[in-house]
Amino acid sequence: MDYTIIIYIILGIMPSLTWLMYYLSKDLHPEPKRMILKIFLWGTLITLPVFFVQIGLSRLLDVSDISNTAYNLIYWFIIIAFSEELFKYLVIKLKVINSPHLDEPIDVMLYMVVAALGFAALENVLYLFAPAGQMSFDQMISRALIIDFVRFIGATFLHTLCSAVIGYSLALSFCQVKRRYLSVGVGIILATLLHGLYDFSIMTLDGNIKFIIPAVVILTLAFLVFWGFERLKKMKSICKIR
Description:
Elements: H1 3-24, H2 33-45, H3 47-62, H4 68-95, H5 105-128, H6 137-153, H7 155-173, H8 180-204, H9 209-233
Helix pairs in contact: 1-5, 1-6, 2-5, 3-4, 4-5, 4-8, 5-7, 6-7, 7-8, 7-9, 8-9
């Protein structure tokens, strides 16, 4: 096996593992390591179907007769942001909700973050494998470390924050039976809008604004997630979905 493959895989998952250790430290009653690994791997696996969904929807969008602005809005907010947030949510909906390990409100938020980190890990690896021409070993490592750092404070962190927002809404929905679907829907929409705004700004805008808006998005999400974690810690137990 080419040594570059091993290096890219290791460097690609490093940002996710670093954030994973940070978020796990927030849980006063640690979750089973086997369950954490399971959800991390499921988060990794759903990256592939999301990728194919995005390709299919992008091709449909390519043949549409719309303005460039409308194209970018649909692409970044719906095809990219919504599809990724929805699939990460489905991992928790299908693999965690009925688990006996789900015994605290903060667990829902934490598992959403774990799924997001699994998703981001494979995404990071794929970014590292993107063609970059002929490079020496030192150039390859430098390029990989730069991408790692940028995605550590950017895309990987963004994935965890957006998923944590959905996790918070999902945790609240368990004790708000009459507003359960509204609560989850609001969480997914909010995460999608902020995720889409981040991507749209970086990829389509020019000048300082393309960095200012993403920074504001990250800071806003970080505040919401910190507040959400603290609030969920004070909730004694979650209501049974049944």
